[in-house]
Records
---
Amino acid sequence: MSEQQLHMTPDKPVGIIGYGSYVPRYRLAAKEVARVWTGGKGGLPIKEKSVPGLDEDVVTMSIEAARNALARACISPQDIRAVWVGSESHPYAVKPTSTLVAEAIGAVPHTQAADWEFACKAGTEAFVAAMGLVGSGMGKYALAIGMDTAQGKPGDALEYTAGAGGAAYIVGPAEDSLARVNATYSFVTDTPDFWRREYQKYPEHGMRFTGEPAYFKHISEAATTLMHSIGTTAKDYKWAVFHQPNTKFPQKVAGQLGFSLEQIQPGLLVPVIGNTYAGAAMIGLTGVLDIAEPGDRILMVSFGSGAGSDAFDIEVTDKISERRNLAKKTGEYIARRTEIDYATYVRYRGKLAMK
Amino acid sequence: MEIARHWRLKQQRYGLVGEVCPHCDHKIFPPRDVCPNCGDEAKEPFNFSGQGEVFSFTTIYEAPAGFEANAPYTVALVKLDEGPMVTAQLTDLGEQPVEIGMPVEMVTRKMRNDGDERGVILYGYKFRPVLAGLR
């Protein structure tokens, strides 16, 4: 490759104007899945995962996260020029999630709207595009959402962790932001570690192949390339957030990249809400923003199977203190929990054949 | 299928958008273009905060057509902070008991399918107990 700058920055500096998260109320303990499928034997990848209620889907959850982001942004929804929702559980096969979300928050009709797909990094992909739209001057604000109600095949390893939740970000001019997004870099290859074919209800995965050549390779390359390109090291960051399919992977990749467990702790939500797929890294970042101080620098790296990672260099501004209290915090959603058993989970997730 | 009927009501159903009377400042929901308080024309859109409290409630065990999959569920008369009373489902109750006077907040949720699972999904307002510390 010819000598070129590998990290990407928009012409005009951009940042996060508002952020908001959502986690459903219900929780399924991993030990409850083990009780049904393994006689309670074997290790557990998380403590519990979030389960959406009967009347929830990616549309309703995105609307709530977007409303929280709007409350923190203190802008008119009419000034949003793009509503982009990244998910692998859009309620319709054909018909956008994004138009419904845009209508519900009052952002129609002068807006872009589209649904994004790239397994677990669909949301950060939309975030990068939002940086481009705002940073090129095409629009003042863009809304990027990562949200999922992940499906795991009954009895499969992924059923322990396939959770529900995500986050919404309003990207806008850096001078109005609660956190500047200094740079981004994406690392992508064709690596089939996890997929779902058309008309199939549940995804398939490449077992251990999902680890080294997929998750670890892409996150490490994205993180190290971004940091090398902009001249930072792990010590320059107060916090880091990595895609979190289980508790072990983000802890391991953090160690490999020189980050401590303390640096990833506020953004490591997978043990208590599960893997929220397209929402995972993005909701992790909300956990950090809920406690971060002005000047804190944050590295966020997503991962999407198929495969790729988006890495972001983020710097919190002094506007964080006044804005974060304007909407519900991620910890408040996590604290609101009602534990359900496997049978209720089967009903809530539509796994019962009724006809 | 009744696509047009639901489509016409989307703003009030998704976002609790009503009207405010320009003459007496009365808040109106659902929108009706005539102020029920002073009788004058009132077409100014008004976004309700979504905050309110349970005025009365009942639990539905024998649900009407289209709602069977969610039964049992609780329906309430919710007195909005701005004045109007609306009838709506309560949601996200978990094991929380419902009480008269309980503070609730609006959320947009799936109501039902238009027809069966091949039809459009109809979304609308429901209310849930407010999250701790935010009211």
---
Amino acid sequence: MSVIKKIMASAAAVAMMAASPALAEDMRIALVVKALGIGFFEAAAKGAEEAAAELGDVEIIYTGPTDTTAEGQIEVINALIAQNVDAIAISANDTDALVPALKKAMQRGITVISWDSGVAPEGRQMHLNPSSNPLIGNMIIKLAADHLPDGGDVAVLSATTTSTNQNVWIEEMNKVMGNYPGINVVSTVYGDDLADKSYREATGLMQSFPDLDAIIAPTSVGIVAAAQAVVDAGKVGQVNVTGLGLPSEMAGAIESGASQSFAIWNPIDLGYSATMLAYEIAKNGASTEAGATIPMGRMGSLTLDENSEGAMADPFIYDASNIDAFKSIF
Amino acid sequence: MTDATSQTRHIPDRLHSRLYATLRSWEALLLAVAVAIFIVNSFTSPYFLNAWNLSDATFNFTEKAMIAFAMALLIIAGEIDLSVASIIALASTAMGFAAQYGAGTPELVIIGLTVGLLCGAFNAFFVTVLGLPSIVVTIGTMSLFRGISFIILGDGAYRGYPADFAWFGQGYVFWVITVEMVLFVIIAVIYGVLLHKTNFGRAVYAIGNNPTGALFSGIRVQRVKFILFLLTGLMSGVAAICLTSRLGSTRPSIATGMELEVVTMVVLGGVNILGGSGSIPGVVIAAFVMGLVTFGLGLLNVPGIVMSIFIGLLLIGVIALPRLWTMIAARRAKP
């Protein structure tokens, strides 16, 4: 029986550690992520804790399944419903499969919002997008223009010709080109989100346009390949690679100078904003109707569209000043 | 003459009383674990002893347990089916496809069960007719069945299920007793009777202990195995209906990784992974143990990875314990 006793003893020990005594009047907000152990979400949890510290009367329950499955998240949601938490802020593994479970949560009086990866409208009160297409379209050209005060030639290295996200962002970029006089987009090429093809396309761009000043790659695969192509062509300092990328993959390019700066959402801000929004709705009864505006602390306020979705902010800019802090996160 | 009768000695057919044997059985051990977990959970979380919460918690194991009963018979007979979760994916995809064309709930149920049976027959053909090892065949069909779902659905999803289809996975028979819970009990009874009270059940044990001996005893080994694969497929179809109804949608990633949880449940229930022994009551208790552990730890917001570690320790602990016990007893018995 000793083994069983040991198991039970360790169960009790785990229980003691986990059941950190919550003050009765504290508002409990659950931050449910796709899976535990992912740097991006650990950073979001950090942001949620920051918001909780700022608000004072909030306890954050950071939880999620081991694998990115909808079934695992439903088990987590059922456990949260059972604990009668005040709010659930979830990044969903499945847009539709979570709807019945989250509907049940809302019926039991729990505030439900989704963030990062959304839930179908009937399964949540509102959804927080990290950014929006117009903000991203503007950001990618701004990143290039910021380092070209006298204007210059830039080229776009996209994913595939049919990539919806990239096409919309490039379209939005073209709409605001008037705000950046002197900047010319000389060509748009497609690397198909393959490292080797993106590399060849980037090399081709530098050969076709010897005076090229910047390559904009609004794809995390293309931006890394383009930076490598610039290093290999010995054009560091002449051609600046920018766009959307992941700090962990781009740290080398920032260090070598092939990339001055790039952008992507900031997970800390995302977790912070999701917590602030959940608090405002659960505690202060903020409206989640279309057109409503909900404050979210240091991130300003969020305006909801007709689908009760809102965009948090401009993509966050990463450069030599902050890359070291973020490269280990995601 | 009277001397002879007085000299006959009674030779017991078991060394200990039936009660003693029952108390030392795997099932008793597991039941003790289940009760202990129940008590610990009641003390550590104020939310545990709540009828609605416990009712919600049964969803953690009902669907897996339905398959586990059929899998128990299959493993006792010395075979295994690792494609069950993929059968769920394929059956669910087929139901979703039919629902797009306006199929009603009865048709969807028939489609789900039929696809399950067909997949089971597919596995059975390769194992019993071609004589291939079941672990190899079902690792293959595990990719094949889910692969077909991915081809049909891609990154899309089926949503348009009829409203009354939700009854299976979201409905209640009365008060907090869910439809799935009732199905779970009915299926447990059916499989309990099948394994422990019928000739078919005796044949399953015989095949698991000695397939050649079973064959020479007149048991149609391949036919029994064929039926067992059909039953596992059928139960996967039932689980697919419940899970699809509960999620209200189908994606090709549905039930990913469930096959290992089903096998864990069976082994935790005392079924010998090499075949030959095991019982349905054991699997029933194992289902409750796994459900109670995951729900209890979930209530305490223990991270999922700790939960996996805990289930792993539980499995190894419960398997190692009887073996340790025997070794210690053997050592003590030596002079």
